[in-house]
Amino acid sequence: YMGFMRERVKEIHRVLKKHGVIFVHCDWRTCHHQRLMLDEIFGAEGFVNHLVWVYGLGGSSPRRFARKHDDVLFYAKGPKYFFKAPMVRATSQRMKGMMKKAIDVIEVASINNMARERTGYPTQKPVELMEVLVRACCPEGGMVMDPFCGSGSTLEAAVRNGRMCIGIDRNTSAVRITKRRLGL
Q: Which helix (H) or strand (E) holds 149?
């Protein structure tokens, strides 16, 4: 798996503009390996954030803490990347009713079985999560590329938010679902 990812991330780095960024979604099994690989390819100075997507749904175990989050590694090719901090409601009494910059923990529920958004694709991410990342790191009119587009959530988020997009996937089912979602 890591050989597969390394080969693709090297190519993404090669074609990425000097102000481009990459997000790599992973879970507890590969997060640390992915981080080391990204440091090799983008350089340690390319590391921007380690985001935690907390989703809360799913099972639990009697032998460990329940796994209710995934990781999103955020790297930039160069120092002049676009970033517009997402704003969230403040929860402190001092800032009651005000907005503040979001932290590196993103709380967005995973897609439940009855959601209209659900496509049936096994690794589908919520459009809401992808919108947070797209709006934060791609200017309006900018280009979003998802080289593992799966169900098309990232591309839908890009289109909804006035960005251009390119989707790539070798799974014909993913391509069909994405095209249908985008009305193509």
A: none
